[in-house]
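Handout, section B. The chain below has 318 residues.
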Amino acid sequence: MPDEANATGAKAAGRRGPGASIMDWDKLRVFHTVAEAGSFTHAGDLLNLSQSAVSRQISALEESLRLPLFHRHARGLILTEQGELLYRAAHDVFGKLAMVEAQLTESKDRPRGPLKITTMVSFGATWLAPKIHEFLEIYPEIEAHLLLDDRELDLSLRQADVAIRFAPPRQADLIQRHLMTVHIHAYASGAYIKKYGMPQDPADLDNHRIITYGDMGRSPVPEADWLLRVGVSGRGKRRPTLIINNVYAIKNAVLSGAGIGALPNVMAYGDDNLVQILPDIENPEFDAYFVYAEEMRASKRIGVFRDFLLRKIAESNF
């Protein structure tokens, strides 16, 4: 007659059935980190585990599933088809858990906890970053993370909590609030004007050094090549002197005296070293939006940050 422990074990095995697997949270967490890091070593650094410990966890998970999750190469790891399926599911689950955790830790009286904010590099570096300390002085229990990226991070998967975007969001499950209308103007440095003179009309730009954005398919702002077209009739575009694929770097090149560049007014605001060129001509404009996921509608952290942004934008009087 089997003892009680053996009988209990037999019943549990019977319930799971032959070949059944159990995926525990620790192994899934390690798998998710490895999939995003692309290597056991990098994942180990993020998880504060040794490379061998990470490798053992992945091997144990693959053994329990009886499936390979990664193709192992000398240059790193690539997810298998089954690994991709598991990664997408794990990414969604951990994103939702992070959202719930943030909501649960938020105080009833004062907003607290992490707040991940994403926006394009140029706006974040030139306008937002210098002001964020004011927000944190008002709300010291909020831990702000600025994720500056010209790509759009997925808010529904909690890659960020809120975004400041310069085009309307395409996802239907996102809430948007209009922040401001941004105008693009032509700028040069005082040193450049002294050396090359001030253009008197758009056609004069043919005789000047023009700096433009390098990849219009990925430009974070519309009409980034405006200076190549304004004042040109029936002959295509004028040729740029310098092409750069980052708006913040274009500003720095303009400040150095390298040429005339098109910049959003929010990036030029308050910089006395930038001289606006041809201020009376018609210039492109676009709208900026404060965006967050529907699930975060009740978040106090998001509400107070939105109000802070609107107040600082009103003070700037763009």
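Note. Residues 1-21 have pLDDT under 50 and may be disordered. Compare this with the example in section A.
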